[in-house]
Amino acid sequence: MLAVFKALPLLILLLSVEARHRRSIDLIAAHSLISDSRLPREVTPNTYNLHLEPHPSEGHFSGRVRINVTWQEPTDKITLHAHEDLEIFKIIVTQFAADDETEKASSTPLPPTEIRVLKTERVPKKPLYVIHLEKSANRGTQCEVDLTFKGRLYNDTSEGLFRSSYIDPETKTLKWFVATHFRPNLARRVFPCFDEPAYKVPFVINVARHKSMVALSNMPLETTEKMEGKPDWVWDRFQQTPPMSTFSVGVVVSEFANTDYNTTDEENNFNFEIRVWARPDFISALANVTDTVRKSIKILEEFWGCAYPLPKIDLLALPNYQATRPADNWGLLLFKESELSGRRSWHVSQELAYQWLGTLATPFWWSDAHINNALARYVTAYTTVKMETNESFNNWPMTMLYSIYYEFSKRYPHGKSTAIKQDSTSAKTELVFRMLNYTLGERTFKHGLQKFMTDRQYKTFFGDDIWNALTEQAKFDNVLDDSMTVNAIAASWITKDRLPVINVTRDYKKKTVSIAQRVYLRERPHDVPDQEKFVWWIPIILIRQDKMNFTNSTPTIWMRKEREITLTNVPSSDNFIIVNPEEIGPFPVNYDVKNWNMLAQYLCTENRIKIPVNTRAKLLHDAWNLAYAGDLSFATALNMTLFLKHEREYLAWDPVFTLIDHIGRHIDSSAVHKKFQTYVRLLLTPLYEELGDEPKDDDCEGKIHLRSSSKVFLCQAGYKPCIEEAQAAFKKWMEIENPDEGNPVSNQYICPVFKWGTNEEWEFGLQRVIKFPPNRKQNERTYLLKTLAGCPNEAEKIERLLNITILEQNGNFTDNDVYLIFSMLTGSANGYTTLFNFLKKNWDTIKVRFEGKLHLWNSLITSATTVFKTQEGLDMVSELYVQRQSEFGTADFVIEKALKNIKEETKWSNDNLPVIEKWLDEYLQANNATK
C-alpha cells in the first residue's frame, strides 16, 4: 500500500493555492467553525520528520521537527503556527535545492548550505512564529527547517498532547498515558507547523518511550532503536504516512493491553490490521468492537468505492477522556471508555467515516468543515442503518427532523448561539444529502460521491467539488436535465436559515392540485421580514391512494424556486394523496381539510400498515405542528392521533411525546389542561400496560425508549400506579439513617413525588439540598433543586422555596441557584404564576435585594412575566407594568417585549382553546372518561 503513496506525484504533495481560489455556495461567514490566523503562502511544506519525547509522569515533553519546505514566492522569512506555551530554542535552516532558475544554470547540484537565522518573533495575540533569514530565497527554493522545542503535558484537558492516568487494580499503582487530539487546529500546541487543513503532506513520526510502554501512531511500526544515554528508553519509528493535514497526526504512549484478534482476510480484500486497546482490566468489555469495525468498514468501502487507505487501524478506550467527541486521527481513533464499550455502533461508524471524509479527502478550510461534517453524518447514518442493529438510528432521520423543524421555524433561529447555528446548519445539510440520495437515486448519488472521492483523495476540496461531482453523474445518468444542477438545488437549502412548508390544496371536481411553497414559521407572530423572497428547489413526490408505491422516490416534478404550481390528473375525490412521503425532503406538508380527514380515517383501519411507519409519523408530526403554528385546525390535528389506539410501532409514537409536552405547556394555565391530562392517560395507559414495567432481553432500543417515554408522560399526567411506585421508592430514602450520604432513588421518581406527593416528601427534598455535603457530586444537588422548583403543582411549595432563597437569603443557596430556580419556574403555569404573585407581593424588598445583581433582576422579570399565554395573564402583567412602570430599570425592555408576546399567545389561546376543549369533550365522552 505504501507504494501507492510514494507513486503520488510531487504536485499532490504541494499546495496549488492559485488553482483553488474559488468559493463554495456554502462558504459564508456564519458557517466558519473557527477563526484562525491564516499563514502567508510564500513557503509551503513538503514533508515532516517529527520526533516526540513525552515524559508522562513528569508532565512535560520535548521534540524536534524537520520540515522540508518549498518557496512559492520570494521572501526572507518563514511563518509557522506555534502556540505561545510551546518553547522553541534551536532553529537550523538548511538550503539543499536552489530556486528553479539557479538550478537550470548549474550543471551540478548545489551542496546543502545553512541559511543564517537573523531573529525570530512571535506575533502578538496570534499563534504565529516568524523566522527571519539573512537573505531572501526565490520561488522553487527548497530548505529543511529544523526546530527543537519543549512544552508541558496537561492533564486537565484532552487537547493537544495530553496526559491522563488510572489506577492499576492489581498493583494499585498509578499508570500514566499520553495521547494526542489535534482537531481542529491544536497541532501547534505540540510542534511548530503549518497548521492548516490545506497543507497535506507525508509525515515520518518518531516517538520516544520507556520500554515498559507501547507507542502507537498513524502508521505501523517500522523500527525500534535504543535511545542513546537512556538504557530503559527506545525510539519507535513509524512508516511514512500518506499526505495528511496536521490535525490528523496521532500518537499514544501507554501500557494498555490490546485484542490479539488478527482481522486480516485476504479472501475478502480485508488486508489491514484492526487492534483495540484499553487498560488491561477493561479490555474484556471491548470484545465485540473488532467485529463492529469490520462490518462498518466493509459498508464504507462499498459506499466510497475505494478500500480503507491505511494498512492498520487502532481504536483506544481512554479512561478519563474529557473531549466532547472522539479523536479521529488517521488510523488511530480515541474514544471514551463508555463510547467504545457501549452497545451502539454509531460512535465507531462516525469516526470510521472520517477516515475517508476529512482525512483521505480534506476540506480546504474550516468554512467547508460543516459540509464535510454533514456528509460524514449522513454516511454514518447510512452505515449504521445498513448494519441492521437495534439502535435508535433506525429512527433516523425523524428525530433529527423534529428538532430541525423547531429551530428553523423560530422567529429568530439559533438566537445568539453560534454553536447551535453550526449544528443545525450541518444537520440540515445532512438532510439535503438524504434528499438527493432519494431524488437522484441511490445508484447515481453513490457514484457521484465515489467520483468525488476518486478525484480528491489525498487532496483537499471545496463544497462545490461535491455538488459538481453529483451534477456530472446525474446528467450522465439522465437524472437531471441541462437546466438543473445539484449546486443550485443545494444552494437553495443551505444558504437559508429557514425551511419551507408546502400547502397542498385539491380541486376535487377538476382533479387538480395546487401546490404552493412559503416559509415555515411556527412561533408567533409570523412577521419575519422579506419572507416572500424565500423560495426553494423542492422535489414533489406524490403518493396516491389508488396507486400506492412508496418505493418510487423520483419526483413527479421539481418546484424550481416557483411560488406555486398546479398538477393535473390526481385521484378521484374519495382517494387521499400524500406529498413528500418518508420525509424525503426536509419540509412539512399541509393539506386541505378533506384530504387530512381521509388520511385520519385510513390510518384507523388495518390498512394503515400499507403506509410506512416513517410516513405515518410524518403525517402525525406535520398535523400537530401546523396546528400549533395556526395553519390547521386542532380538531383536524387531534383526529390524526386516533390511530395510535392501534399503533405499536415506536417510530409512529415518537412525535406524540413532543405534542404532549408542547401543547400541555401551552394550555396548562387553562381549565382545558385537566381534560388534556385525562386524554394523555387514556392514550398512553394501554400502550404502557402492554409494554410492561420491565424491559425484556430482546427489546430494541426504540422499544425501550417508548416504554420510558410513556412512563414519564403518564407520571406527569397523574397516572396513579406511577405515582405510587415513585412514592414507594422515595420512602426508602426518607427512612435511611443518614439520607445526606447518598440518594438511593432513581431520578425518574423524584419529579412525580414532588409534583403529586405530599408536603412532607417535598420538604424532605428541600432539606437534602440545604444539607447537601460538599464531597458529593454537585450535579446531584443541581438536579434535586431543579425538580424542587420545576415539578410541584402546589403554589405553597414554590412560595416556601422563594421565601427561603430570596427573602430569608438562606446562605445555603447561591446566586446561581436562584437563577436556576427562576428558569425552572417558567416550565409550568403554576410556577411562573406563583413567581409573578411573589414578585408583586414583595416588590420593594426584592428590588432592594437585587439592586446590585442586575442579572438576577432581569432574570426574575423575564421568568415572572414573559410566559403567560391567556388574557388573564396579559391583564396581570399589564397592571404590574402600569403600577411599577418607572421601577423596572434595566428590565424595562423585558416587560415591554413580554406584553407584545403575551398578546400574540393570548390570540392563539382564544383561537385554539375552544377548539381543543370541544374535541376533548367529545373524545372523553366517547371513551366514557371523566375529567
From TrEMBL:
InterPro entries: Aminopeptidase_N-like_N, Aminopeptidase_N-like_N_sf, ERAP1-like_C_dom, M1_APN-typ, Peptidase_M1, Peptidase_M1_aminopeptidases, Peptidase_M1_dom, Peptidase_M4/M1_CTD_sf. Its main location: membrane. It is an enzyme of class 3 (hydrolase). Binds 1 zinc ion per subunit. Pfam families: ERAP1_C, Peptidase_M1, Peptidase_M1_N. It comes from the Eukaryota. GO terms for biological process: proteolysis. Residues 45-247 form the Aminopeptidase N-like N-terminal domain. Keywords: Aminopeptidase, Glycoprotein, GPI-anchor, Hydrolase, Lipoprotein, Membrane, Metal-binding, Metalloprotease, Protease, Signal, Zinc. Residues 291-486 form the Peptidase M1 membrane alanine aminopeptidase domain. Belongs to the peptidase M1 family. This is Aminopeptidase. It comes from Tenebrio molitor (Yellow mealworm beetle). The lineage of its organism: Eukaryota, Metazoa, Ecdysozoa, Arthropoda, Hexapoda.
